[in-house]
């Protein structure tokens, strides 16, 4: 693909396709008088984030966003097309795009993955030290990539695009053998650069349970709290409204990640909050979901500052790219880690990282004089461990991989939050459905954001949410021990959206809708990540085994029934006209369960595939200091080390883990 300067009299920028793409008659005129001729393939829409005027040789890089409409409907293409003229110049500083550009062959630390956790480590390990650090990221830079900057455009990046790994699951037996898309971030910032920005740390109990499972009091909340406060800070919402009564400032810290309340109020917000006053026992109001007690309904807090996404790349990495002891290599995939020799205790010493830009490209290596740190996420980290000979020895041998360390738990115990949409037809014309159907409205909203970082595009799709619990006498507990971390932790979650969120069903041509997404956040189902082949560039086999446990099924059915009780509050009278879709058509428990099996997708919160355990435990992959068991010089720092999935969106817990990991590493080497 090429991005070329068009005829000067037309001031155009033209995308040229290859033999797989056919030009189509789509041209978008944007505010600065730029026409874009766009190409489409049979299932891809090719787009170019124009970060600066096209170069004379037409060599600017393109980025491909397949199925950009998957969340918000087909006319969402327009939102992507019409944004490119607004992108800011790319700043690369010490970011290398080709492994051949690397001058150094040795570093103190090599961080595999420039994602949510990896960038925290890059920042902290190079801060005031002489340690040299190399971060290797498979994806592109985040700089200038508008869909990752504008909060409302977040859904355009998933599930398939050039900035995700484009994973899919195996057919899910408990979901009618449906195969689910499973996107993970593939750019600097990782999934913190592509997620929907919802920020919840979970209850104190979640971390106390981690401490109990690992036998390490360092993971208790009282000892982790400083890392939470160190990672993020509360900033004003995009519209600068008075947030009194909507948040507790004392529950927030002074870290680099910016957190804010919704900056574009919707018609749902007062209805959701006021309805809690009618059901104070079952549906209590929660002033701040970061208070340590996450049960209740309140305002969403999102990783947004000044109307822009705040990711690990913008918060932790970008400000320190000028450090002389930090290098970043992007568009390069780690293929394995390599051991050389053993310690006096007989542990293999992992000292080298192998990487390449493609399956058939030259392999490069770099040496880590102190540690290799895997921060490739709950899918990538176990894949690299397995490719490196760390895992179930029998399985590895059968695949032709020489076993180095026998750790059968590698890639096992994958946990995630199953989520599904509940739709309701509204007596309203104010939902964002109109913006999705009307390109003129979309262009106006975009221009408002470009002018002063305000309006619809400065906000995440969700403004209010809640974590709720099943009653203590629920029938499921007659045979199942409560899987939650405690009474301050939810069993399920609601997310209120003033519009139609497309996952399984598509946006209707007419009407205004409310979507209530609901997830089981204390699930018992667990699955696995295993190798598909010995080629690192082949996607692994991902089986979350969704909905396989009876508790998860029971909790989802009760979440639907509970929501319907909540919507009986007077605030919803004459506003909700009726339920919509096959979940809405379901009435009995059996019907709701069958509908759920058709509707459930992933909320993209995979964890626990390299989980922590006590140092001498026979289960687990890393010890409480996050060192890979049976090895020297190798750690894992990402959501894969969670002993159990928390009843929270996972970005905040990952920041907490990464901040503590940085201290653990520095204390060992300083």
TrEMBL record:
<feature type="binding site">
    <location>
        <begin position="604"/>
        <end position="605"/>
    </location>
    <ligand>
        <name>FAD</name>
    </ligand>
</feature>
<keyword id="KW-1133">Transmembrane helix</keyword>
<dbReference type="InterPro" id="IPR036188">
    <property type="entry name" value="FAD/NAD-bd_sf"/>
</dbReference>
<keyword id="KW-0274">FAD</keyword>
<dbReference type="GO" id="GO:0016614">
    <property type="term" value="F:oxidoreductase activity, acting on CH-OH group of donors"/>
</dbReference>
<protein>
    <submittedName>
        <fullName>Aryl-alcohol oxidase</fullName>
    </submittedName>
</protein>
<feature type="region of interest" description="Disordered">
    <location>
        <begin position="239"/>
        <end position="263"/>
    </location>
</feature>
<comment type="similarity">
    <text>Belongs to the GMC oxidoreductase family.</text>
</comment>
<dbReference type="InterPro" id="IPR000172">
    <property type="entry name" value="GMC_OxRdtase_N"/>
</dbReference>
<dbReference type="Pfam" id="PF05199">
    <property type="entry name" value="GMC_oxred_C"/>
</dbReference>
<feature type="active site" description="Proton donor">
    <location>
        <position position="605"/>
    </location>
</feature>
<feature type="transmembrane region" description="Helical">
    <location>
        <begin position="70"/>
        <end position="96"/>
    </location>
</feature>
<dbReference type="Pfam" id="PF00732">
    <property type="entry name" value="GMC_oxred_N"/>
</dbReference>
<dbReference type="GO" id="GO:0050660">
    <property type="term" value="F:flavin adenine dinucleotide binding"/>
</dbReference>
<keyword id="KW-0285">Flavoprotein</keyword>
<feature type="domain" description="Glucose-methanol-choline oxidoreductase N-terminal">
    <location>
        <begin position="377"/>
        <end position="391"/>
    </location>
</feature>
<dbReference type="InterPro" id="IPR007867">
    <property type="entry name" value="GMC_OxRtase_C"/>
</dbReference>
<feature type="binding site">
    <location>
        <position position="334"/>
    </location>
    <ligand>
        <name>FAD</name>
    </ligand>
</feature>
<dbReference type="InterPro" id="IPR012132">
    <property type="entry name" value="GMC_OxRdtase"/>
</dbReference>
<keyword id="KW-0812">Transmembrane</keyword>
<keyword id="KW-0472">Membrane</keyword>
<feature type="domain" description="Glucose-methanol-choline oxidoreductase N-terminal">
    <location>
        <begin position="185"/>
        <end position="208"/>
    </location>
</feature>
<feature type="active site" description="Proton acceptor">
    <location>
        <position position="649"/>
    </location>
</feature>
